[in-house]
Amino acid sequence: MNDGDEKKYIDNKNLDKIYVSKRIASENPDGSHNNIRYVSKVIDSEKYISFFKKKDEVQLRLTSGGRQEVLAKTLEDSNGIYCLTLQKFTSKTGSPHKIYFSFVGEEIKKLKNFLDNIPLIKFSENINKFNIYDQNIE
């Protein structure tokens, strides 16, 4: 599927639904088999912050948003996520293109813990910049 077809496919997804692929048989290096599924959710963002370089300086710019998709590759028997991909579809020039990156294995748990911990940080206790160990947040 080319980027244009993929963008149309993503644009037609309903924001209120979670999409689950058909069962895909997968063989492991040891000869055992797992069934995997792709599970996805689309999100529309009105605006987002993008980085751009002006001369030798990196600057931030608030730009119009776009449709984003979170795609999880899961093991059917345990619902375990083994790859999490975040994708953004943009069409600045009229021809859509996709930007994406993936989290694999332990990176997924670290991302989840990071997001879960942000609301637990007590920002008001210190007006200066600071850092804190993950285990000290709770």
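Above is the first protein from milestone M3; the second protein from the same milestone is given next.
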Amino acid sequence: MSQEDAPPAGALPDDVREAFDRVLDEARARDVVPALAAHAARALKQASGRARSAGPAPNERFGMVGESPPMQELFAMIDRVAPAGVPVLVQGETGTGKELVARALHDASPRSKGPFLAENCAAIAENLLESELFGHRKGAFTGAVADRPGHFVTADKGTVFLDEIGDMPLAMQAKLLRVLQDGEVRAVGSNTTRMVDVRVIAATHRDLPAAVAKGEFREDLLFRLNVVTLHLPPLRDRGDDVRAIALAILPRIAKEVGREASITDAALATLAAWRWPGNVRELENELRRAVALSGGAIEPEDLSPRVSQGSLG
């Protein structure tokens, strides 16, 4: 900080100018000008980080942030497919946001006022999955103390989202195929069927044609499901979307953690350089960790070692 750094004479009132000069003289006398300059630089850097972390994302659509060409193509496909009402298969790696796409298709469709129910086919045992999807009658099995309608009946005039359908057991695939063909469901323990009007959106991270070739997935069910296939790109193929997503979700994460947070350009550059094998879910968890450990403005050293050092090992 030198005399040249002082504001022009006409920029401040005389009394403020005199006070400013006294502060400069005192700082020079105590030889603390370099320390003041360093402190001012740090404060400016943190202020810049806070400004970048605030405000809604201008490039957000359907609850997703993305300006990259793959995401713009996906948004355009959602616009075209949502009103059609046909089954849709969403393909993408784990953590890319497949359920967000399913909800977008539902919300932008004529069924938007109807129910949206989701089930992860890989997270529930086969005998329970049938009951969850199609319902059961009282006494159908141990623990069935009352009739239960199931997702397909509850979501009548709405949408059922079947996540990780590539992990659905073959026996359940046959029962799902019948529902898609006939529009009828039969609860476990019942002898009667019920007509339902449900749009099915399925998602998987698996290569379903390869699973068909191995006998692990029914080809006729695949034909029923992939009337339209939407491909959700991995985060590593989305360029500067990493920075935009980080800035968009940081305020929410800070609120969840209960701390104020901002992020510096250096930390954003570090995030953008990482390959993100866990995609957006991994990015969210990385920011959650950084907010918990940082003193306010997230710096590269606040990130996990493998991200900050760029190593997958």
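Note on the second protein: The domain at 62-233 is CATH 3.40.50.300 (Rossmann fold).
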